[in-house]
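CHAIN AND CONFORMATION:

***
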Amino acid sequence: MCWSPDSRQICFKGANATGQEELVLVDAEGAERGIRVRYTTTNLFPKFAWHPYESRLVFCMPCRERRVVQMYELDPATDAPPVLVAGQNSISHNADPCWTPDGKHLIFVSHMP
């Protein structure tokens, strides 16, 4: 789970009745105030990194085209689909993202398969 920088939302990995995994956003005041399934997939990594100043949420999952784990980002305020984080090595596994406090750099673990 990961708190938004303003502490108004929580992002977490959930599972639905069909066994698919979901990236879920919940209002901090409770589900009755707002719960939103933002993305559904089959293999979502549970580590999330919310940008400290921008509306960007980074997470990891296997990339079908590249056949390695890659970082994806989405705007939690919209319904736009996630996109690959730019600048990644396309042949290495990239996981466990974390933003620096100033939001200028994304730190992550990378290793070759």
The chain has no helices and ten strands. The mean pLDDT is 93.
